Amino acid sequence: MAKHISFGTPVNDAERWAFELLGDELPKDYLLLTNIEIPTQSGQAMEVDALVVGEWGVYVIDVKGYIGRLNAGLHAWSLDGREVDNSLSKANYVARVLAGKLKNKIPVGVYAPWCQGMVFVTGHKGEAIELEKQDCALSIYTPRQIIAALTKEWGLTAPHKHQINQRQKEAVLDTLGQVALVEQRNNKIQDFIKLKCLFLQSGLEVWQAEYNPGGWTAPWLLKILIPTHFEQLSEARQHEERLRGEFQRLQKLSGCSGVPYSAPLIQDGEQLVLPIRMPRGVPIHLLEIERLSIYQLLEILRRGATSLSQIHRRNICVGGWDEHCLFIGDDGEVEFIDIRDDISIDEDLRRYAERFLPLALATHQPRIYLWFQRVAAGRGADLDELRADLSALIETGVCDSLDSDTEIAEGSIIDHHFRLEEVIYQAAHSELWRATHLQGQFDVGLSVYRFLQQDWPGLNHQYRSLSRIYHPNVERVLAFGELGGSDRVFIARAWERGVALDCAEIQSPQQVIGWFRQLLTALQYLHRLDIFHSAICPKNIICNGDSAVLLNFGLGQDIAARHYAAQYADPDLWALEGDAERDLYGLVASFIDVLTPIELKGDAGPAGMLRALDAFDPRWLGESLFAMCYKVLRFEVNLTDNDDYMPLFGFNS
């Protein structure tokens, strides 16, 4: 692409098309000056359609939009049989005038460059033109040969051919005069100065520019629409509507993070310009992800989700998800520079997840990258959920992922915070350890689980919910994360002293009923927050004196395999029940199971559980409690959102 400096406006479509072709096809070290005037010795100015300062010479080009069959001779020309002007004579005359001025102006010791005239016959945008020259040496060319004639040695008519050096080019510009001023004028739009062309297509241009009102500068982007450069007027109007629509969207989104500031539209009669503040940072495809910390990646994802959420709340979609349309700043700021609003919100979310998935994977946080994988596959999305998870991880810390598997053994350090001390329980897919918090020097319970990725959304929801609530009979979650290089996760919780329900020494019926009542209040609290345990069994209930605590929400299913109340229930009824009814069934069945003497236990089926309950004296449990437990074991309880569990089981406030 040659450097193009326009001294005036093209007078017709042929000139406009010819200048675009020359500017696009000539080498970048060529200089194209269009509609320039060259003064003669008499002071009269002669206008030149195009002046090309090239590798072998200086070419004075006259552009003709002839259509048809052109017969060109040394003296006379005809177009489809009728006489037309010999344009080459005029071009050669101007070339001789320019050569004379160069010889008088050029400094001593520098040879004047060769100047020659040339005619460019365009036809209708390169078509519908036939050229017949009586002499092959005549410098008359159609679009098929014009570029070669200007760039190859054979196109020169000089008896001795020499390449033009830099000093000769400078002498040409100095002779023409004010070229730099004209270039500066062409590159200035009000107080914006064009610096570098980033995109160029017929009628559409994108420039890197600076705003320079005097005393200070600021970087900007200029989106320029030149209606006269479009082949069809309707196409120009369509692009103008799009540019005006983009300006209106940017104004509507003013104040949203991630949306660049735009100045008012500029329309000077020849072009329509939309100035947009230059985004800070680098395009997302140039971001060096491997050099960023986990917290920097999380901050980028959080800011991107926040910006997209604000944009969607104003009923606008981004649409422009090409890699060069997203910029990431040094502070993690995400900016969208091509807001089109031409797709649905669901599709916008899918493309967001697809574009940012590599960053999410680099965090090694399952609760984050599984969200992006799910949404990129088109399986629903909740930006608020993602933002909550990102904020929680940034605030509470993350588990640093390791390149290799973390060994689970006595003395191992987990997440740089917890040292494993003693294994309490082991199963095929989970382990429970007593661990020490290194900084605080207090005991914690730490469980390790092997999980399947499809189970993660539910586990993530459980952790996110539990980390924000408190109940004295519900485990207190301290940390949660992925063990690097594997499919294992860990959960650290406050150490609950005591033993599992099936190992507890029962002192009195009142003690057992007290545990049951505490856990019932905990379940009612959790259920009203849409949190369900899903794995209540004797091993997941820790008892200590007069206190009982629920553990392992939604985790450690293998721990519950031998004790989980679902195995006692009718599988057909179990499959039809809701989460709340299942939790109540698990609570009731766990207590009935551990309280029934071994000699009175029957089979593990629903009939056996009911026979075990029948062995109890209703007066020992209480008539109301006994009756409600009977209904729960038979799945005859239909709960509603406003049900109070305590009166249902016969407990007073």
Automatic annotation (TrEMBL):
Signal peptide stretch: none
Domain NERD: 10-121
One Pfam assignment: NERD
Domain Protein kinase: 418-653
One Gene Ontology MF term: ATP binding
UniProt-listed InterPro entries: Kinase-like_dom_sf (IPR011009), NERD (IPR011528), Prot_kinase_dom (IPR000719)
UniProt keywords, alphabetically: Kinase, Serine/threonine-protein kinase, Transferase
Gene3D superfamilies given in the database record: Transferase(Phosphotransferase) domain 1 (1.10.510.10)
Domain of life the protein comes from: Bacteria
Membrane spanning residue stretches: none
Segments forming a coiled coil: none
Protein name per UniProt: Nuclease-like protein
